[in-house]
UniProtKB/TrEMBL annotation, chain B:
A Pfam family this chain is assigned to: ABC_tran
Annotated SMART domains: AAA (SM00382)
Protein name from the UniProt record: ATP-binding cassette domain-containing protein
Keywords annotated in UniProt: ATP-binding, Nucleotide-binding, Transport
GO molecular function: ATP binding; ATP hydrolysis activity; transmembrane transporter activity
Record lineage: Bacteria, Bacillati, Actinomycetota, Actinomycetes, Micrococcales
Highest taxon in the source lineage: Bacteria
Cellular component terms (Gene Ontology): ATP-binding cassette (ABC) transporter complex
Keyword Acetylation annotated: no
Positions of the ABC transporter domain: 8-238
């Protein structure tokens, strides 16, 4: 804004200002005028030109590889599974008979073993999900809204760190923690409490630990997207901590929370290794599939059992689709 | 609004962020019912003062009084002040009506009454038809008015506005300035308005505090600030000024010190001869056509480049061009002394 009180340009020589009809042509006039060379026309360049003019071709190239992968590995494999469930095994030869039958599906739906295991699996998955969300919410909130940028980076690394170790190592670590003479027993004994030992509670604890990072990260990302000014606005309008969490933070984080639950729920539903390691004698759906594929050599029955978690997950996804949570994955 | 207490009294208010002092011993009293602006460049501490008054930040030192009550240590939800945020901070998952009713809801006011009051508040900003929409379905100006309704529905004693018009385009901004002024007059509550737009501050305010480096550089009415800036910074920041440093002042005015003259107080002509008129010859460097006026940039022979604003009215006779020799003249009355030999006028060279 200031017309600066220094010497005007004219007093310092014609160094600045708009292009002058300067006859001397002093500073830049010496060198010949040289343009920037035009890019050469190479095949790659012609290809780029073609692609930039044909968006559909571009899209086709972009999608070809992922669509191929999705089609062959995912859809075809799933379809094969689906089909196998409607075949049967010749009990004498152990060969698969490719005759259509609903026997396997009916067995799985009506057999009391399968019903019990299904409900147990759903129960474990739900419990793991609830525990993970309860643990993840405060951690994610602290990471997203309270911690300094430096502390936030450290916490993100800390949350991700367990994922660097093998799943098996972590499950066996919990087996040792939960054992009758393990750390947990040693810590709890002075308070008159005992380790739950191996069984369903141990399974829930271990699965909750395993899937916690998958729940924290989406909730953290969701909360990070809530502008600080909204929290300030709530406080400004008279909202104390709890009303602010209930009316502002929770509704805005809900899609992210649901995204997190999809991970913990579906991962728990399909798990069979953890329950083998810390679950004692209890079985989950995954164990039944595993036994039927391996020891029992009944692939069609295993496929039919595998349809149960698929159906449950589809039901769950249909339920959460309405909340808009799937936009957040 | 006959309260003899000032609405806001800041005493020795200081805020440090690590090694940076954002607000440096600010003392300030704002009268009840006043439209008060805090003007300054970004980083001058004006927004921090606002956030300290709202309670979003805790001061390092000093106190904040609201109608005589010391609120320095109180949480934001425990202060009778409300804020209109720069980005409006409307809750995206709530409808416009729910947004406006939020302050009433968290105060435990019944559903029927809060909806009734929120509707009235929306009507006062002429948005009664928009209650069911989501904030994302509104234009910038409408969101701005929702934010205003949301902050005023809880009847605060002081309303804080953090650059509320910054995101609007020029036409809308001018329209909202008029509306803000009307709303303030209707509600009769104290408005504290933060802006970096000097024109906006001059247009709206009863009084303006110009902030620089965490301190109040000058406090006064818009006319005082514009006509009699007390420092080089204010002369430069509020409006456009032609600044004469010590040497130029000696040559042109016959006395030392730093002085300023507004461009519209200068005229380009062939020189006047009245006793209180100063004439200075120079060369036109640039003429800029502004529509309602013409700005001439002239290099005076005394060694300073000045900007002269001429009205494009029927009295305008000259058509000066680049390179023309002209005489720039101004009245002695229009020269503002900005204190003694300024540090800026003593460069090593």
């Amino acid at each position: 804004m200031t017309m600066n009180a220094t010497a005007p340009a004219s007093a310092r020589g014609e160094a600045s200002g708009p292009p002058d009809p300067d006859p001397a042509g002093s500073a830049t006039g010496g060198a010949p005028k040289r343009g920037i060379p035009r890019p050469k026309s190479t095949p790659a360049r012609r290809g780029s030109v073609f692609l930039s003019a044909h968006p559909r071709v571009r899209l086709g190239f972009l999608l070809a590889a992922p669509l191929f992968w999705l089609g062959l590995v995912y859809v075809v494999a799933l379809a094969a599974l689906l089909v196998t469930a409607f075949w049967s095994v010749n009990s004498f030869t152990g060969e698969i008979t490719t005759e259509w039958t609903l026997d396997n599906v009916i067995t799985v739906l009506t057999g009391s073993l399968y019903q019990t295991v299904t409900f147990r699996t759903i129960g474990v998955a739900l419990l793991v999900t609830i525990i993970d969300v309860a643990l993840a919410l405060p951690i994610a909130f602290y990471m997203a809204k309270v911690a300094s940028p430096r502390a936030r980076r450290i916490l993100v690394i800390a949350v991700l760190m367990p994922l660097w170790a093998s799943y098996l190592v972590k499950a066996y670590a919990w087996r040792s923690v939960l054992s009758q003479d393990g750390i947990l027993e040693w810590v709890l004994a002075p308070f008159g409490l005992h380790t739950p030992g191996y069984g369903l509670p141990a399974t829930v604890i271990t699965l909750s630990y395993l899937w916690l990072p998958y729940v924290i990260l989406p909730i953290f990302a969701g909360l990070e997207r809530v502008p600080d000014s909204l929290l300030e606005a709530s406080a400004d309008l008279g909202g104390k901590t709890w009303p602010t969490i209930r009316h502002v933070v929770f509704p805005m984080a809900l899609p992210a929370i649901i995204a997190g639950t999809i991970f913990s729920f579906s991962l728990s539903l399909g798990d069979y290794i953890t329950v083998n390691i810390v679950g004692g004698a209890s079985q989950m759906l995954g164990n039944l599939v595993y036994t039927n594929v391996g020891a029992a050599n009944n692939l069609p029955l295993a496929s039919a059992i595998a349809l149960i978690p698929i159906a449950i997950i589809f039901g769950y996804l249909a339920l959460v689709r309405r909340t808009g949570a799937l936009d957040n994955l | 609004m006959t309260d003899p207490q000032p609405a806001i009294r800041l005493t020795g208010l200081t805020k440090e962020f690590g090694a940076v002092t954002a607000v440096d011993h600010v003392d300030l009293e704002i009268a009840a019912g006043e439209f008060f602006s805090m003007l300054g460049p970004s980083g001058s501490g004006k927004t921090t003062v606002l956030r300290l008054i709202a309670g979003f930040e805790q001061p390092t030192n000093g106190t904040i009084e609201l109608f005589g009550d010391d609120v320095t240590k109180r949480a934001p939800f425990d202060r009778d002040v409300n804020t209109v945020f720069q980005d409006y901070a409307l809750f995206p998952h709530m409808s416009v009506l729910e947004n406006v009713a939020y302050g009433l809801r968290v105060r435990g006011i019944g559903r029927r009454e809060r909806i009734e009051r929120a509707r009235r508040a929306l009507a006062s900003v002429r948005l009664e038809q928009m209650g069911d929409r989501k904030p994302s379905q509104l234009s910038g100006g409408q969101r701005q008015r929702v934010a205003l309704a949301r902050a005023t529905v809880v009847q605060p004693k002081v309303l804080l506005l953090d650059e509320p018009l910054g995101a609007l385009d020029l036409k809308l901004r001018e329209q909202m300035q008029v509306e803000l002024k009307e709303i303030q007059r209707e509600l009769g509550i104290t408005f504290i308005f933060v802006t970096h737009d000097q024109e906006e501050a001059l247009t709206l305010s009863d009084r303006v505090a110009v902030f620089n480096d965490g301190r109040i550089e000058q406090l006064g009415t818009p006319a005082e600030l514009y006509e009699r800036p007390s420092s080089r910074f204010v002369a430069d920041f509020v409006g456009t000024s032609n600044l004469f440093d010590d040497a130029v002042s000696r040559a042109l005015l016959g006395r030392g010190g730093v002085h300023s003259v507004r461009p519209e107080k200068m005229a380009v002509g062939s020189g006047e001869t009245a006793a209180d008129v100063r004439n200075a010859p120079g060369t036109v460097v640039e003429t800029i056509y502004l529509g309602s006026g013409i700005r001439l940039v002239v290099d005076l022979d005394a060694g300073v480049r000045v900007s002269v604003l001429e009205q494009n009215d029927r009295n305008r006779v000259h058509d000066d061009e680049r390179g023309d020799r002209v005489v720039v003249s101004w009245h002695d009355d229009d020269v503002v002394a900005l204190g003694g030999a300024d540090v800026a006028s003593e460069p090593a060279a």
